[in-house]
Amino acid sequence: MAKLSQDDLLAQFDEMTLIELSAFVKAFEERFDVTAAAAAPVVVAGGVAGGDAAAVEEQDEFDVILTGAGEKKIQVIKVVRELTSLGLKEAKDLVDGTPKPVLEKVAKDVAEKAAESLKAAGAAVEVK
Prior knowledge:
Elements: H1 6-14, H2 18-32, E1 44-47, E2 53-56, E3 62-68, H3 73-83, H4 88-96, E4 100-106, H5 108-120, E5 124-127
Antiparallel strand pairs: 1-2, 3-4, 3-5
């Protein structure tokens, strides 16, 4: 079997859904007996002209909140199920009980992709 380069592996990950990628990470952790921890954010301290040094911290965790299901409620339920590990009933209850968080404490790019998917299905979404 040919060894895949890092770029080849990343290209494969780009094609995976969040659920498939999550399942891969779990399988990887089990197989190699490791834990995939998120990298700690780097806090940059810089001097301000004529002032004290201030620490600047960028938000690295976002919540995707479903604020409305819109006209295509079934499509929104399908997208919620794709983004989470919820069953049909749980996803329907989440959509019916808006506003509710769909994803919590996720990376910015994951939150943006999830919000785009939900908006494409007709839902009203906030990213906080």
